[in-house]
Amino acid sequence: xxxxxxxxxxxxxxxxxxxxxxxxxxxxxxxxxxxxxxxxxxxxxxxxxxxxxxxxxxxxxxxxxxxxxxxxxxxxxxxxxxxxxxxxxxxxxxxxxxxxxxxxxxxxxxxxxxxxxxxxxxxxxxxxxxxxxxxxxxxxxxxxxxxxxxxxxxxxxxxxxxxxxxxxxxxxxxxxxxxxxxxxxxxxxxxxxxxxxx
Length: 198
Prior knowledge:
CATH topology: TorD-like
Shape: globular
Radius of gyration: 16 Å
Order of helices and strands: HHHHHHHHHH
CATH superfamily: TorD-like
């Protein structure tokens, strides 16, 4: 991976947000991660307040409770409450054209599917991880801003804001409600940043 010294401070922050969202949405946190989340401090911004809310709920949650919430929201018996996939949000079906387009772009960037992951590659956690990798250079040289924007617009920005709104509003989401808020706000910041840079 490219040394972090070569990544601008602003991009390190963006990489950090994407990495946090990827970790939060890839599975229920273990006790150590929960402890790290409980120690987070926000600020007076809307995003900072959402971070404070996440830290607060992390302090008062048990891993087993969050595991059950994660199951209800994203796995479910029969069908999950939310299906966090590009294909589903854009077409109403899993394994559809958006996934094929993502796989084509992954091949172009030299991004390989992780063998131990059973989820389709267009899962929101995987996409956040890929975006972090493009920013930080995990797949070679860090991607330039135009390339990052193309990936964001094609695979994330076109549906993730709606997913995060759905997550934030879900009656089943207690721990994951502030995760939805953080994702929604960060997606808006990213879209605005790309727009300003264009």
